[in-house]
Task: structure prediction
Amino acid sequence: MPLDTSNFPLVWMSYDEEPDHDHDEDFKAFEATLKRGAPFVILTDSAPTEEHHHSQEQKKRTSLWMKKHKADLRSLVLAMIVIEPSAAKRMAFKPFGVAFAKFWGYPMKLASSREEGIVIAKKLLLEHPGSATA
Result:
């Protein structure tokens, strides 16, 4: 889940990873983004597919990391916006969004294009007191 924070408070996350990808670096980058102390929105146009699996060890590490950073995740991450052009795939994501929000502490929103995703993100940022507008 590499992060691109160059357009903060719009943070782009990728699920396209090489087999030898270093997840520790991802967690460090996510922590550095949280340490900024300003609200932000995560956007992705490479959402995980059914083939995207994590080992039990990776799931446990992610869960422990999430619990450690739960307060910051809930207060600083306004949403994850999944960009998916296919209406059928967006519909399939909706039930997953409920479980996602319970686990991560922030909602999952769906957009049909990057442009729509950015519009949603900017609206969320404008509605949240104390956020820097993108």
